[in-house]
Amino acid sequence: MPETAASALAEQFATPGQQEEAATLGIWAFLSTEILFFGGLFLSYGIYRVTYHNGFAEGSRHLYFWIGTINTFVLLTSSLFMALAVHAIQDGNAKRLRAFLLATFVFGATFLGLKLLEYYLDTGDHLVPWYNFQPNEYSHPYAVKMFLFLYFAMTGLHAVHMTVGLTALTYLYIKARKNTYTESYHTPVKVIGLYWHFVDIVWVFLYPMLYLIGK
Amino acid sequence: MSAATFIEESPTGVEPPRHPKQPDYLHDGYGLKSWLTTHDHKRIGILYLIAITFFFLIGGIAATLMRIELVTPNTDLVTSETYNKLFTLHGVTMVWFFLIPSIPSVLGNFLIPMMIGAKDVAFPRLNLLSWYIFILGGCFTLYSLIAGGVDTGWTFYTPYSTVYSNGHVLAMAAGIFITGFSSIFTGLNFIVTIHTMRAPGMHWFRLPLFVWSMYATSLILVLATPVLAITLALMAVERFTGVGVFNPSMGGDPLLFQHLFWFYSHPAVYIMILPGMGVVSELIACFSRKRIFGYKFVAFASLAIAILGFIVWGHHLFVASQSIYAGLVFSILSFLVSVPSAIKVFNWTATLYKGRIFFHTPMLYALGFIGLFTIGGLSGLALATLAIDMHVHGTYFVIAHFHYIMVGGMLMAYLGGIHFWWPKISGRMYNEKLAQFSAAVIFVGFNLTFFPQFILGYLGMPRRYPAYPPEWQVFHVLSSAGASVLAVGYAIPLCYLIWSFFFGRPAPQNPWNASGLEWTHALSPPIRTNFEEIPIVTKEAYDYPYPETPNRA
Questions:
Q1: Using alpha carbons only, what angle is made at residue A155 by residues A154 and A156, rounded to the nearest 5 degrees?
Q2: What's B1's DSSP letter?
Q3: For chain B: N or C, fewer Cβ within 10 A?
Q4: For residues A24 and A29, what is the distance between their CA atoms, to the nearest angstrom?
């Protein structure tokens, strides 16, 4: 193993290979935790979607379909750049790594910005179940309220994860500017990349569940 | 290998302790700061030991007050509302702040890296962070206690907890939510450590069974705890915002909360017994001087219990309007858990058979575990039977059942483990006679406390009631008397273990002549990196002299 890799070796490990294996398994174990963390919300959604089939569709029609759709494209593009960033550093190209990390960050931040805009518009439309929801405007008030609560809970939890991801990207970018990552040592890029893709995949499920069921 | 030599047979002077080049972990840095910023898994284990002992005392005080209240049939010591807060406090602290972190976070942290021949866990900083998260969660829970308590019971059933309860539900739920992440990170750390940090030659079937059981436990910690986290978060949001996810008057389903809660909390029951099983496997083999009978069966039984534990939660909902067909399926699945559990009990018993048995304190706890766990497990079969559960659901029968598992099982195993590894942890020996005496006191006190509760439950005494008909007083008095004996039994080890930590006779490297790497290759107490050089493993686990030796007495 090259010296650069050994210099980043924590004392508890014997070899850089062992360290990389531990980090990779660690993030996969963490992602399995995350799946079950979101799983409780997905189960609640599933049960109430079956119970209040039409009410959920009614609620879905009040969301901003165009923002959700644009955001889906924005987030998938950010994931593409993340994959390219990992690919770049595997080839040892630190310059391309920095560029792709920056692109990932910009698209991720755009997603969050659009999401906040959507929340703002939702509030104006009286869609916030615990704040200004107007039950008598809907034919299935309970179901629409439940749907909107789950919409805010699931996209809110997703947005929290996006914020964590953007923070991690900032960390990666600062480190990358110091040329910390090389062809032989780039485990953090890989690990945060996996996390980023996971958050992206959650959205891939959220988009049809929240925006498309009323179509 | 030489015949079994125990500390009594070979006094400490015979084998002079080696002079380590490095200080042991207790003397590798002094002062509070060196402890609070440590990355050493052994020191973090000690930090957990102190923290959970504190929470055990709080939970114990709540239990004591309840048992005093129950001496008389009327509510005279505390009001009904205070009683509700007491059993909630008892449940919450004992489950989340004592039992779940007990063996995993204390003994698991201390032992897993040493048992597999590693210098530390895979993520030492995350390990320390887990402890701080645990303490933060504990602070929230203590706050809710000081602010006035919570009266929902440890299960937080909706819509009572979200709409009607006046207690500080949010603070306590926040405490449990936060502490959950401590569990998750600890489990994650153990899984990665066991997969990637094993010493050369330490392949999977050479791992001590304690490591196997901790691996199975960690799977549950990582996969079940997040569901509790999101469930409590939903509950808290509903209480805060009044949205009604679990409130039937607003279109929600309270049964969904129960399903989500038990999807975590039933596997959590196995978090509270699997580590104990791992400890008992170590103790039985060591004090029988015998290889464990059916190593692979015991190892895979741990995994089987962990997996089956995820698909039996519905037996908590037999009388909660769950469909009868779901009830039947969950009943059958619950019976299945008894198969791997019984495999373990039979294999421990078979290990004892023709072994050379030493009745040292850890062994007394281990033998106590086998008996009490068997009673707890068999009464669990009764509860998994639909027809019987209809009769005893929500009674003291359930209370007695799970206390036989959690206190008779897990707590006995925890104390056995603490006594077994105390020479390694502290570098000191405790007073053996006193320790044996207190083990006996705990056994008697435990049975006196909880056996009458089986009868009470069968007679129909519901749980969570501060008052009861006078004809049941005799059983409640027996139970309360047992609780006082039990309290004495816990107080004695607390005193002599603390005493021995400072003034005990220095322990040799391997007082029990046990076979694990933590005994054969690490000093008592170990150095910061556990081993002077990473051991190369060439032997099976439990390399004890029996049953190979042909002419045993």
A1: 90
A2: -
A3: C
A4: 9
Per-residue DSSP letter, B167: S
CB B526 within 8 A of CB B424: yes
| Longest CA pairwise span in chain B (Å) | 75
> Is A49 in the B-facing interface, judged by CB distances under 8 Å?
no
Q: What is the pLDDT of residues B74-122, one digit of tens each?
A: 999 999 999 999 999 999 999 999 999 999 999 999 999 999 999 999 9
CA angle, B398 then B400 then B402, to 5°: 70
Residue B501 has which token pair?
């930590």
Neighbours of B57 (CB within 10 A): 14
| 3-state DSSP assignment of residue B505 | strand
Look-up of token digits 């392949």: B203
Q: Does A178 touch chain B (CB under 8 A)?
A: no
Q: What is the pLDDT of residues B21-62, one digit of tens each?
A: 789 999 988 999 999 999 999 999 999 999 999 999 999 999
Following DSSP, what letter does each residue of chain A receive, concatenated? --HHHHHT--TT-SSHHHHHHHHHHHHHHHHHHHHHHHHHHHHHHHHHHHHTHHHHHHHHTTS-HHHHHHHHHHHHHHHHHHHHHHHHHHTT-HHHHHHHHHHHHHHHHHHHHHHHHHHHHHHHTT--TTTT--GGGSSSHHHHHHHHHHHHHHHHHHHHHHHHHHHHHHHHHHHHHTT---SS--HHHHHHHHHHHHHHHHHHHHHIIIIITT-
3-state secondary structure of B530: strand
Q: What is d(CA B63, CA B93) in angstroms, rounded to the nearest whole number?
A: 11
pTM recorded for the entire structure: 0.94
Which chain B residues are within 8 Å of A12, Cβ to Cβ? 118-122, 124, 197
The residues with which B313 forms a beta bridge, in sequence order, are none
What is the spatial distance between Cα A187 and Cα A181, in angstroms, rounded to a whole number?
A: 8
Chain B residues in contact with A27 (beta carbon < 8 A)? none
B359 CA to centre of own chain: 23
Q: How far apart are CA B45 and CA B386, in angstroms?
A: 41
Give the whole-angstrom CA distance, residue A77 versus residue A71.
10
Positions of E strands within B386-528: 428-429, 505-506
Tell me which chain B residues have a C-beta less than 8 angstroms from the C-beta of A50. none
**Quick check: A33 contacting B, CB < 8 Å?**
yes
Compute the nearest-CA separation of A191 from chain B (Å): 14
Q: How far apart are CA A48 and CA A52, in angstroms?
A: 6
Beta strands in B377-484 (DSSP E): 428-429
Cα radius of gyration rounded to whole Å, chain B: 23
Q: Do A11 and B120 touch (CB under 8 A)?
A: yes
The percent of chain B in helix, strand and coil, each rounded to the nearest 5, is 70, 0, 30
User: In which band, very low, low, confident or very high, does the pLDDT at B8 lie, cut at 50, 70 and 90?
Assistant: very low
Residue in A186, A130, A126 with CA at minimum distance from that of residue A153: A130
Distance separating alpha carbons of residues A170 and B153, to the nearest angstrom:
44
Collect all residues with Cβ–Cβ distance below 8 Å to B257 and sequence separation of at least 6. B156, B157, B158, B231, B234, B235, B246
Return left, alpha or beta for B208; rule: phi > 0 is left, psi -120 to 50 is alpha, else beta: beta
Q: What ipTM was reported for this prediction?
A: 0.93
Query: Does any CB of chain B come closer than 8 Å to the CB of residue A43?
Result: yes
pLDDT tier, B543 (very low <50, low <70, confident <90, very high otherwise): confident
